[in-house]
UniProtKB/TrEMBL annotation:
Its EC number is 2.1.1.-. NCBIfam families: rsmG_gidB. It is found in: Cytoplasm. It comes from Sphaerochaeta halotolerans. It is an enzyme of class 2 (transferase). GO terms for molecular function: rRNA (guanine-N7-)-methyltransferase activity. S-adenosyl-L-methionine binds at G83, L88, V128, Q129, R148. InterPro entries: rRNA_ssu_MeTfrase_G (IPR003682), SAM-dependent_MTases_sf (IPR029063). This is Ribosomal RNA small subunit methyltransferase G. Its main location: cytoplasm. It comes from the Bacteria.
Length: 219
């Protein structure tokens, strides 16, 4: 790794207690370079420079410890990242959790085009698939389903339930714990599917914001 974010990335990974191989570091660097290259055209993320690394890469990776811990209960867990956009958190997670297959679900064509390029640039095309469709059209099942900045839980969990494997987990990247709790109250009163949830605090290096991971299982 020799890019302009080398020191920041190494420091962030240390703070999150993540150990990346040279290949993973290179994949991360190539992914960031793709986002920076296409951001002016595709308007992928609203941050640049160190801020891009902190708000998007570190934020995505901040849940790797927790998600990796859960994933180890399956033999080879299949992952789906819903409303993946620029591949967040899906691509950083696929780089970090490099033994598992991932599917990025995204319905907007230009973002899908970006994702295709990014997977080629990072060498992830074999292990990471793209489902270029609406979540409602997905017919596969997944053991671990992630999403970030997608939709309120109450609006999507009934569409997520049919694609979650028996015993599977939904890992939703969220903000302030109290807001998540009020989303969960709506889920309990308005969703047809039934869920049990636990909320874990996340620490994102250099980010002064409340971040949480809401982990849901079907009951
Ligand atoms: C606000 S962006 C968030 C992108 C990314 N997850 C992130 O954290 O930066 C939401 C993305 O979800 C996609 N999306 C919204 N509804 C969807 C659906 N029903 N099926 C598939 N993709 C959807 C949008 O096209 C958009 O790219």
């Amino acid at each position: 790794m020799s890019g302009k974010y080398e020191a920041l990335i190494k420091e962030g990974l240390d703070a999150m207690q993540l150990s990346f191989s040279a290949e993973q570091l290179q994949q991360l660097e190539r992914y960031i370079a793709e986002v920076e290259l296409f951001n002016p055209i595709y308007k992928l993320v609203g941050a640049e420079g160190d801020d891009l690394v902190i708000r998007h890469i570190f934020d995505s990776l901040s849940a790797v410890g927790k998600i990796g811990e859960f994933a180890r209960q399956y033999e080879t867990p299949s992952f789906a990242d819903l409303g993946s956009g620029a591949g967040l958190p899906g691509i950083p997670l696929a780089i970090a959790l490099n033994a598992y297959p991932f599917t990025l679900v995204e319905r907007m064509e230009r973002r899908v085009n970006f994702l295709r390029n990014a997977l080629v640039a990072t060498g992830l095309s074999e292990r990471v698939q793209i489902a270029a469709q609406d979540l409602k059209q997905v017919r596969q099942h997944f053991d671990v389903i992630t999403f970030r900045a997608f939709r309120p839980l109450v609006e999507i969990l009934d569409d997520v339930a049919p694609i979650l494997s028996d015993g599977g987990l939904v890992c939703a990247y969220k903000g302030i714990g109290e807001q998540v709790e009020s989303e969960l109250i709506q889920v309990a009163s308005q969703c047809k599917s039934r869920w049990s949830a636990e909320v874990f605090p996340l620490t994102v290096p250099h980010l002064d914001a409340n971040r949480t991971l809401c982990v849901l299982t079907k009951i």
